[in-house]
Amino acid sequence: MQTTYATGTNSHPYFIAIADLNNDGQLDIAVVNSGTDNLAILLGYGNGSFALPVVYSTGPNSNPVFIAIADFDNDHKLDIVVANNGTNSVGVFFGNVDGTFEHQIICSTGPQSSPRSIGVADFNNDNKLDIAIADKQNNHVMIFNGFSNVTFASQITYSSGTDYYPVGILLYPTGDDSHSYSIAVGDFNNDSRLDIAVTNSGTNNIGVLLGYSNGTFTSSMTYSTGIDSNPVAIALGDFNNDNQLDIAVANHGTENVAILIGYGNGSFSSPVTCSTGIDSGPKAIAIGDFNNDGRLDIVVANPGWHNVGAFLGYGNGTFEDQITYST
After folding, report:
1. What does the pLDDT read at residue 158?
2. Residue 31 sits in which domain range?
3. CATH number of the domain that 150 lies in?
4. Is residue 55 part of a domain?
5. Number of domains within the chain
6. Which one of 97, 147, 175, 299 is at 20 to 30 Å from 203 when CA atoms are compared?
7. Cβ-count burial 2-22 (b if 16+ within 10 Å, e if not)
8. In 3D, which of 76, 84, 85, 121 has the Cα closest to residue 105?
C-alpha cells in the first residue's frame, strides 16, 4: 500500500534521490520541487516512515528539475547538487552531519542553457568530483571540473560565439537541435576511464563521449533511438551478463524502452524496444534486480497512464512484457 508525504501546495515534485544524509544508517529522501523552487529533505526513521520535509530554497523562478548526491568537498558528509532549469545554473548544497544543509552556492551554466540533468564522477583523476550537465537549450554536454576550494567554476566568462560561459567549463556539442536531456556515466570501452552517454531528445538519438584520463572527451558518437522517439531518460546496466555495460532509454515519443547492448569497445548495438503502451509517455527509468533472480530488470514511470511499469529481465538482454502498478 502506498504511503504519501506532502511536499507542499503546488510544489510539483520533479526528481528524487535516496541516501543516508544524517549518518544514522537509515535512508533519507531528497526531492526537488519545480513548482515552489526548493529542495526538500525527508529524513527516514528506518521503519519505512519519514519526517516532515525541511525545505531549502533554490532561488526564485529556478525550476529545479534534477538532483544528485555526493561528497563534493571530501569531508565525509553528503552534499547535494541540483539543476536549476529556470535560472540556467546548478546549485550546490553542502551537507552537515545532522542532515541539514548550507545555503545554495550557485554556479552559472551559461545563458539559456536550461540544464536538465547531472552526472557526477571524477573525470580527470584528481580525486575531486566533477559534474557533467546536459545543456538542453544550447545542445552541449558541459563538464565542470571540481576545484580544491569546493567550487566548480569561476564566474569569469568567455565567449562561445554569441554566448558566454564561466571559465572552467568544458563544452562538448551534441548536435544542432539535439536538446540533450539526460546523462549517464560509465566505462563503455573498458579502459578504466569514465565515459558519458546522453539522450538527445531533439534528434532522437543517444550520444556517447569516450573519456580520456585528463578529463576531456572524444566527439559524440550517436546511436539512433528511432524516428520521433524523443528519448528523455537513460540508465546503464549489464543486461546480458557479458560484463559489458548496456544502455536502456525511455522513449517518450514512441512510448517504449530501447535497449542498446554494449560491445565493450565503446560501441553499441541497434536498439531493441519494449512497449510501455499507447499514450504512456515514459519519462523516467531505473535499473535493479527486483525479483532476486540475479538478472537486471527495468522500471519506468508512465505519466500518461499514471503508473510505473516493470520489465523483468531474462539475463540475455531481453525482457518480459511490462507489468504495471498504479500510482
Report:
1. 39
2. 1-173
3. 2.130.10.10
4. yes
5. 1
6. 299
7. eeeeebeeebebbbebeeebb
8. 84
